[in-house]
């Protein structure tokens, strides 16, 4: 798609070797395929959070892929890196027979990427003049609109349903979907894990092990958390109810409460 890229072996990637790989990539993407959770946390997060590594050029775009979830991405990362969770998968037997990936690699050229860059780079340059405004422009919306228009034009004005524009707000809130679904599931299946202290505006959520409490604390938005106490996480009750879109009532009371 890019015409050229630098594929970095995941086991060799480290923050200390970044500048060497960057010098090889120049302006082309630096791709680290199938990186493991430990190496990502030990090396990639520091690169993403720090601007020191990008003060000298070249500073190529870095693309990380992982076959399993990278656990506990802090908000400092999701605010600086575009995270794309992909849940689609196919059975091993089907994958062995499938030729779709090979066909894509053989037939997809650089035309889309070149057309995208030709349109989006001038638009991004125009955004720079308004970056310090009280209401700065939305680069996500600008970039995704360019891609949406290109796909629509190539398909005679009928882009597929999964193709749509993205705003910064929708992107940032998308990271809450997984933990919101987790808390919904726990409330339905294990309500005993929740202790409601409505006079204090607290709800106490108790984990079964240190790994679980660590995952919760990392993924639950910071503004909901009061503090951690051992294997328990104390949350602001009303704010948590607003986040979940439901009122946390004891099961025997819920029959008399009807949300408006």
Strand portion:
5-15%
- Give the helix level as a range of percent: 40-55%
Tally of helical runs? 11
Trace the largest sheet across and list its strands.
Answer: 4-5-7-6
Quick synopsis:
Helices cover 43% and strands 12% of the residues. The chain contains 11 helices and 7 strands. The protein has a 4-stranded antiparallel β-sheet with strand order 4-5-7-6.
Keywords:
single chain; 260 residues; alpha/beta; 4-stranded antiparallel sheet; 3-stranded parallel sheet; 11 helices; 12% strand
Can you describe what's shown?
There is one protein chain. The chain is α/β, with parallel strands linked by helices. It has 11 helices and 7 strands. The protein has helices at residues 18-25, 37-49, 75-78, 92-97, 100-107, 111-128, 139-154, 168-174, 177-189, 210-219, 237-244; strands at 6-9, 30-33, 62-64, 194-197, 202-206, 225-229, 232-236. The chain is globular and about 60 Å long. The chain starts with 5 loop residues before the first strand and ends in a 16-residue tail after the last helix. The model is unreliable at 253-260 (pLDDT under 50).
Topology overview:
Layout: E1 6-9, H1 18-25, E2 30-33, H2 37-49, E3 62-64, H3 75-78, H4 92-97, H5 100-107, H6 111-128, H7 139-154, H8 168-174, H9 177-189, E4 194-197, E5 202-206, H10 210-219, E6 225-229, E7 232-236, H11 237-244
Parallel strand pairs: 1-2, 2-3
Antiparallel strand pairs: 4-5, 5-7, 6-7
Helix pairs in contact: 6-7
